[in-house]
Amino acid sequence: MGMANGGQLPRKALDISDENVPIPQIDIKDLPHCPKCKTGLLRPGVVWFGEMLPGDTLSAIDNFVSESKKIDLILVIGTSAKVYPAAGYVNIARAKGARVAVVNIDKADAPGGTKGL
Predict the structure, then answer these.
(1) What is the reported pTM?
(2) What is the pLDDT along the chain (117 residues), one digit of tens a residue?
(3) Which of 49, 60, 88, 114 has its CA 20 to 30 A from that of 103?
């Protein structure tokens, strides 16, 4: 089995989908720092809860969804399919024939809630 966290913990120990596995604390010195100032932390390329997606990204998605006559598949990864704009894209894509694939560790967070897809 591979090792993670500098060889200290087995990979399974970092499986955050298992609520019984404790998540280890990470020292701030082990996080990626700004290569210029060396003191600030680098921001990951993600959109945090409560933040908006970049405007050009939303425009590109809106154009694709509205201009497509048929959509085969929509992937909802790492976001809530109940929060807009993701929820709206799921509904529009589904109306255009899309299958919906949700990748989220919260089973109740699927489009349609506990009733599922």
Answers:
(1) 0.54
(2) 444 445 555 555 566 677 787 778 889 888 899 888 888 888 887 777 778 888 998 899 999 999 999 999 998 887 666 777 778 888 899 999 999 888 877 766 666 555 555
(3) 60
